[in-house]
Amino acid sequence: MLVVREHAVNEIVAALQIDQPSVSKHLRVLRDTGLVRMRCQGRQKLYRTNAEAIRPMHDWTATFERYWGHQLMRVKERAEAKASNISASDSTNKEKR
Predict the structure, then answer these.
(1) How confident is the model over 79-92, as pLDDT tens digits?
(2) What's the CA gap between 1 and 28, in Å, rounded?
(3) Contact 54, 47 (CB under 8 A)
(4) 7-49, which class in CATH?
(5) Domain boundaries in the chain?
(6) What are the pLDDT digits (tens) for 40-60?
(7) How far is CA 31 from CA 26, 40, 53, 61, in A?
(8) pTM higher than the cut 0.70
């Protein structure tokens, strides 16, 4: 949500349907870690994603994406093999009847 444009806390609360103290608490943690930026406009605090700070995290998680892609492919292959074995077993049982 904060990638597209900056938002006031009340807009975030309305969009996420989460109580304001929880949203403010999360935004503070994100701001303290540098993942979002805040600017004041009058009494409103506007928040936006800090893309430069997120880039290293994105790069780091990409290494896991390759690993999990491989693992998910193995799960898919096992599931398909099992389904194939069950299907073949059902066909054999029907022929015996």
Answers:
(1) 998 888 877 766 66
(2) 16
(3) no
(4) mainly alpha
(5) 7-49, 52-97
(6) 999 999 999 998 998 888 888
(7) 9, 13, 11, 20
(8) no
